[in-house]
Amino acid sequence: MKPAIYNSKYFITIGVFILLCFSGIGYFMTSKFNKRTERISIDMATKIYQLKSNIIYNEFRSFIRGLNNSETIIPQIRSNTDFHHAEQMVSALLLSHPKIKRGWYAIVKGKDTVYKTITKEGQQYKEGTILSYQKKFIHSQLVRKDSAIRTGTMINVSDSLHCLLASRHRLADSSVLILGLDVNFRDLQHYLWSVDSTGRASAFIIDSAGYYITNLEEKLIGKRMAGPVKRTGTQFLGDSISSYEIVNSAYLQLPVVRFYTPLHIGPMKWTMIVDTPVLAVDEDVKAIEKYVMIMFVSTALIILILISWTQAKWQKQFMLRQRAELAVERQQKENAVLQLDKLKEKLDPHFLFNSLSSLNGLIEEKPALAKSFVVKLSRVYRYVLDPTPNGLELVSREVGFANEYFFLLKIRFGDALASLEIDLNEQHSSAYIPFMSIQTLVENAVKHNVVSKLKPLYISIKSEGDGILVTNNLQLRNDVKDSGKQGLKYLQGIYAHFGDLHLNYGIEDGTYKCFLPLIKNPSTP
C-alpha cells in the first residue's frame, strides 16, 4: 500500500511552506510599517501633549493670578491704615480665581504683627485666625534677609499637600506687608479633573525632589514618585528642554509616550509629566490593517486548501483499509468514522482563525513569541494529520501534543487559563492510549467551562494506577450547545476495540475527572 501522504515528503514540503508564509508576513510587516507607524504615533502624541501641557500651564498660571492682581494696588497703599481701608479690595483681588478659596496676610509695624486668614464663601470674604502652619511660614518670611519679593514652599498638612505662596512688600511708613495664597492640592486635583476631561492624555506634576504635586490617584499626592524622574534613553523635543520616552503606564495600563517638561510657577520649580497613549493616524492604521488582512486571509486559504486535500487523501486510505480487513470490518468502520469526525473537529476553521487572531496580536509586539507560536501551530497540525494506523499513540507523544495545543490556548486566554499541570510516571510513557485523547479532554474543559481571570480554569494530567487521570475544576458555561459527546464516544469506541477496557469519567467534589486506561499490547485487539 502506498504510504499516507502525511508520512511522505509532500507533507514536509507543506509544513515548510506554511512556516515560510507566516515568517514572510512577520518580516514584511515589521520591516515595512513599524518605523513609520511609530514615528506617526509619536508625532500625534506630541501634538496631544502640547495641547495638554498648555492647558495645565495656563491653569497653574491663573492660580497665582490673585497675587499679581493684588500687587497692582500696592503702590497706592502707603501705610498700615491705608491697607485696612483697602482690605476688602485686596481680598477680592487676592482670591480672584474661582477655585482658590483661602489666602492670608500679615502686617508688621515695629514690634506689632497682625496675622489674618481670608476665606472666600460665595461672594463674601471672611477673616479668621491664622493657622499654625501658615503662621510658621509667615514668620520664616519675616526673618529673611534677601530682597526676594515672591517666595513659596510645600507643606504636608493632615488633609492634603498645601502650597504656600507669598508676596512681600515694604510700605512707605516702613511697615512690611506680606500677602499670600494657601493652595490645597487635593481640592485643586478635583478641579483639574474637569479641565480637558475629554483629552486622551493624563498629566501629573512633581517637585524637584520627586514628590507628587498633583496626580489622578489622590492617595499619591504628597508622596514620592517611584524611580528616577527621568530615565536614561529619553529623547529631546525641538525646544531642547522637553523630553519623552515610551513606557508602560501603571495608571492607564497601556504603552504611552511620556513627556517631561519644566513647570515654573512663581518661585516653584516643578516638572510636568504627560502620558499620551501610543496612537497612529487613522489612514495609516487602515492601510496597515488592509495589508495584514490580505496577507492573513491569503495564508489561511492556502492552509485550508492544503488541509482539505490531505483530509480527502486520509479518508480514502481508511476506506481502502476497511475493505481489506474483513475480519473486523464493522468495528474498524465505526472507529474510522469516529476518528474522521474527531479530526474534522480539530481542523475546524474557528480554531484556526482564533489562532491566527492570537498570532496577529503577537507579530508586532512580541515577534519572538510569534515565531514560537507559528512553530507550535505547525506541529499541532502535523500531529493531527499523522495518526498511527491502529488509532493509538504513545503516552509521551500524546502528553507532548496536548502541551503544544495548550500553548496555543494559553496565548489566546492568557491568565484566564492556569498553567497546565503535568505529573507523568516514566513507566507510563511507553504505554499507549487513544490518539488525541488527552487533547480531546483539554478541549472539552475549555469549551464547556467558564475561562476568565476571575475564574481561571485549572487542568492537570497525572499518572494514577494503570492509567492517566485528566481533571479540571468545574465551572460550567450556560451558553454551550449540546455537542452529542462526540469526543467521549470516540474514546469509548477505541477502548471497545482493544478489549475489556472502559473509559471512566464523571464529577467528584466539584472537579470533572476522566480516567484513560493504559493499553500495553496494542497489536492484539
Overall description:
This is Signal transduction histidine kinase internal region domain-containing protein. Keywords: Membrane, Transmembrane, Transmembrane helix. GO terms for molecular function: phosphorelay sensor kinase activity. Residues 339-417 form the Signal transduction histidine kinase internal region domain. The chain is of the alpha+beta class. It is built from 13 helices and 19 strands. Strands 3-2-1-6-5-4 form a six-stranded antiparallel beta sheet, sandwiched between helices. A six-stranded antiparallel beta sheet has the order 8-7-12-11-10-9. Strand 5 (161-170) and strand 6 (176-184) form a beta hairpin. Helix 9 crosses helix 11 (395-413). The radius of gyration is 37 Å and the shape is elongated.
